[in-house]
Amino acid sequence: MIYFGRIKILKKIIDWATEKATKKIAESDKLKKATLLGVYLFVAIPLPGTGAWMGSLIANFLDLEPKKAVPVIVLGVFTAGVVMLGLTAAANGGINYLFNHA
Which of 2, 32, 71, 92 is the 20 to 30 A CA-CA neighbour of 17? Predict the structure, then answer.
């Protein structure tokens, strides 16, 4: 963020987007809940760059309270772990099936 802040046009865009998003979220309780759901879904997707660290950064960027953001992020990490466990078990079972029935 600091890197992009050095370029004036990017700094203006980042400041504008941050201010607008923060204002909209602060005005609506429904949007706050949707924001927490969005952070959860972002963290729960097991892709590179979508983990707890980035989810924490987004929560901080959106001025979410740590009391509300931390449990959502922990649940997202747990969900991502379960998804990866399921995918690994399915792949392992499929590979075993292929080797045993070939």
Answer: 71
